[in-house]
Design goal:
This protein is of the alpha/beta class. The protein has one domain: Alpha-Beta Barrel (TIM Barrel), CATH 3.20.20.140. It is built from 10 helices and 13 strands. It has an 8-stranded parallel β-sheet with strand order 1-4-5-6-7-8-9-10. Strands 11-12-13 form a 3-stranded antiparallel β-sheet, with no helix packed on it. It is globular and about 45 Å long.
Length: 301
């Protein structure tokens, strides 16, 4: 089985969000990904200062230029932030002090750093005044994905009309306790015919029974799996980093903040996601659709 992952923050001990990422480290991560059946990824850079994000993006671009394995595996870059909702729960593991309203000029700077490799940008539609950044990205052929956000139904519809085509890890990047009906999960599911809906398929970020429900509600044809993997993926318990953030992975192999308050990315591999889906009763074709075919189709491959 082949896999394609749209959200990989790091892998096999390597952090793609390190300001000091080397080409050799990137090759190490990409070689491990290939060994685990992942044919291609979007290396994901999360919220930081704009200058730091640009530097991290440039490190990935350089590694891709310098090494054939990295070039083969890293198909593009997923820029997750900094235009996210800073409210409790919605900001998730992203540094709240670096979250900001969307700006076309800032986005242009990040795009320039990516040198044509930006494939997906995750932002909060309610933080994009007039949806100018959404429109700009859509015009550039970049997939605009909503995430770490709480737009109203009308705001979400307007964002779709402006070029939004995806939702980042539904069921995460939101508070643990939500209003019964008026919540971001229900809104996205109600508009799933217009969106590619991504889920972290490790059975932990979204419990397996809930994942099954979401897939039924949105329909398999509109859904795809990601790992949201960090450097701890494939490595086991211990201490890791995601950019400047410290992470602890316990015996349960769940990545959490040092205080244990919330998840910080995932230790999952696509092999783990495959197992979770098969335990839910999905067959080869369905797993391939969720983990390879639709992730590629969603970004135009």
């Amino acid at each position: 089985m082949r896999y394609f992952d749209l959200q990989v923050n790091g892998y096999a001990g390597v952090d793609f969000n390190s300001i000091a990422l080397t080409t050799e480290e990137a090759k190490q991560a990409c070689s491990a990904l290939e060994e685990d059946g992942t044919e291609g990824i979007l290396a994901t850079v999360i919220t930081d200062s704009v200058e730091a994000m640009k530097a991290k993006i440039r490190r990935i671009v350089r590694a891709r230029e310098e090494d054939e394995t990295v070039r083969r595996v890293v198909v593009g870059i997923h820029i997750e932030g900094p235009f996210l909702n800073p409210a409790d729960g919605f900001i998730g593991a992203h540094p709240r002090d670096q979250a900001r309203s969307a700006s076309v000029n800032v986005m242009k700077d990040l795009m320039e750093a990516a040198d044509g490799l930006a494939r997906v940008v995750t932002l909060a539609p309610e933080c994009d005044m007039g949806l100018a950044t959404t429109r700009y990205l859509a015009e550039q052929g970049v997939v605009v994905s909503a995430g770490h956000c709480d737009p109203s139904l009308d705001q979400l519809r307007a964002a779709i009309d402006a070029g939004l085509t995806m939702f980042t890890h539904l069921g995460n990047g939101c508070p643990q306790n939500l209003p019964r009906h008026q919540n971001i999960v229900e809104r996205v599911l109600s508009l799933s015919e217009s969106l590619w809906v991504c889920f972290i398929g490790d059975g932990i970020h979204v419990p397996s029974f809930a994942l099954r429900n979401y897939l039924r509600a949105a329909t398999l044809e509109r859904c795809l799996m990601v790992t949201d993997a960090i450097s701890a993926a494939r490595c086991g318990p211990g201490g890791y980093t995601l950019g400047a953030r410290e992470i602890k992975v316990g015996a349960d192999e769940v990545a959490r903040s040092p205080d244990g308050a919330h998840f910080v990315g995932s230790t999952a591999t696509m092999l783990k996601v495959d197992r979770v889906l098969r335990e839910l009763g999905f067959n080869d074709d369905e797993v391939a659709g969720l983990c390879y075919e639709r992730p590629r189709r969603a970004i135009g491959l």
